Amino acid sequence: MKKSVRKPILAVGPFHPLQEEMEFFQLTVDGEIVTDIDVRISYNHRGIEKLSETLQFDQVPFLVSRVCGICSASHPLAYVQAVEDIVGVTPPDRALYVRVIINELERIHSHLLWVGLAGHFIGYDTVFMWAWKYREPVLDLLEKITGNRNNYGNVKVGGCREDVPDEIIPKILQELDNVEQKTEMLAKAVLDDPVLHARLKGVGTLSNKDAMDYAVVGPTARGSGVDIDVRRDDPYAAYADLDWKVITQTEGDVFAKAVVRLLETFESIKMVRQALKKLPKGPVAAEVKEIPPGEGCGHAEAPRGETFHYVRSDGGNRPVRHKIRAPSYVNVPSFRASCIGQHIADVTITLAAVDPCYSCTERMAVMDSRSNVILDYESLLRLSREKTAKIKKEIGSPELKLEDL
Amino acid sequence: MNQEELDNRLAEISDKLIDTQRISDRRVFLLCESENSFAVNKFLFQDLALRFIIATGIDSDSCFEVLYHYSNDETGCIVTVKAFIRDRENPSMESITPILPAAEWIEREMRDILGIDFINHPNLRRLILSDDWPEGVYPLRKEVKK
């Protein structure tokens, strides 16, 4: 029998020292070099796929916009496109343009968020402060259009819920000019900084072959020379009518991914501007009465890559199966290819370079492990209320009812 | 690979399929039994170099279905392999992870939520269920109450 050698394992997580979501990496190390990596996820599972089967087709967009706080436009869009695939309905032109505007504004704020976080991870807090400051006005624009800074709840099967009011278009255009100018400054400062070149080039390289094998998507793929983008490859919304280009880099390192995201931000600004100028007149929703039996696939390019939804209908008013694949689900396992052989000090930024989103990656159910009963929303609510009542009783708080107030 | 080439190449594996459903230029479903799933997937990934998107596991009452979704990014066509697992008692099929690393997580997930055993999977540990989740309870099966 071969004698096994105990190797040191460095545990990062489940409460990650830098990122805000829970994940658990076990790095097997040889001195300073990482020789193996094991990822554990699912500390944040919320049961969205199962929940979706209990909701009506119209309610699901609100649920899936909560899959991720950042991609709260792309998930519902991919879902409604899957359902539209089943119904065979095409939304009115104006709705397609409104979808572009909201999704590209989302991409702008998401990429700026990443630039800030990346700066924070490597100790450039000024970049963090700047990027997040310039991101704020974009969120404000989204609030003006949809009423919310996140969780826009704007798409529905057959179109959009809210229109972009004509009177705020000049304000959006003006704000875009500001964001573009600031992002240019930020991009120049980041891309010309010799320290950042030294820090990020050649770090966490994901080769083109590995990118294909791990089927990564979005800026993670495009940074490794894989020229894919759902917006161009399977055009949805109004992307086919707009003039823009897909940004790719061949190096596959962290720097390449940063370049892709920064340059994409400018493309997005360009797209929103064009969409606002070309915005057709007319309604923003077509009427959809019934969802026939069938199955549909919908995908959209979220800021982190392709988000994919599969919906099956049996002709009733609820989906019988709804599968959600968020981009991080395929991007995160590529860590095996990009982290092994790296220094421990480079692992954090390599992991951060795919812009992982764990709440996206995880969805499922609440279960009591003693009685094997899955708890539904009502019983959880009841438990929660009972606990509040119990605490109230213990500390002797007077029984107050809303009607008494 | 344009759409015509794709259709021609897909015809090469028709002997392994039950049916080919061509819903539109952008959506093609290839129906097969679970025994042929590995060969069909291998053909799509290695010979046609399609990009693996994800797999969907479904409990559809009489059988289990595992749908492997691929994209031909040149035309934006989504090709889905729909494999049927007829044995409801001991559902199993051959894992595609040995040839397609991207499938590792989703096959582990399908094992967690539907109890499908993926033969030859290099690492079929739990992925999303917590450590104290009871064995043999699969949350996405029909018998589990919503």
Overview of the molecule:
The complex is a heterodimer of chains A (405) and B (146). The longest helix of chain A has 29 residues, at 93-121. In chain A, the strands form 4 sheets. Chain A has a 3-stranded antiparallel β-sheet. Chain A is 46% helix and 13% strand. Chain A is α+β, with helices and mostly antiparallel strands. Chain B is 23% helix and 33% strand. Chain B contains 3 helices and 7 strands. In chain B, the strands form 2 sheets. Chain B has a 5-stranded mixed β-sheet. In chain B, helix 3 (104-114) links the parallel strand 6 (92-94) and strand 7. Chain B is globular. The model of chain B has no long low-confidence stretch (mean pLDDT 92). Chain A binds chain B through residues 41-42, 45, 47, 49-50, 53-54, 85, 212-215, 228, 230, 233-235, 295-297, 299, 306, 308, 310, 312, 321, 323, 325, 329-330, 333, 336, 362, 364-365, 367, 369, 372, 374, 376, and chain B through 26-27, 29, 49, 51-54, 56, 58, 67, 69, 71, 73-78, 80, 100-102, 104-106, 113, 127-130, 132-134, 137, 139-140, 144-146.
List keywords for this structure.
heterodimer; A: 405 residues; alpha+beta; three-stranded antiparallel sheet; 16 helices; 10 strands; globular; B: 146 residues; alpha/beta; five-stranded mixed sheet; two-stranded parallel sheet; 23% helix; 33% strand
**Strand order across the largest sheet of chain A:** 1-2-3
Number of distinct beta strands of chain B: 7
- Protein structure class of chain B: alpha/beta
Largest sheet of chain B: 5 strands, mixed
Order of helices and strands of chain A: EEEHHHHHEEHHHHHHEEEHHHHEEH
Measured by residues with Cβ under 8 Å of the partner chain's Cβ, the largest interface is: A-B, 41 and 40 residues
- From the spread of the alpha carbons, the general shape of chain B counts as globular
Largest sheet of chain A: 3 strands, antiparallel
* Assembly context of the chains: heterodimer
List low-pLDDT spans of chain A. 362-381, 397-405
Strand content of chain B: 25-35%
Q: Please state the overall shape of chain A, judged from the principal axes of the Cα atoms.
A: globular
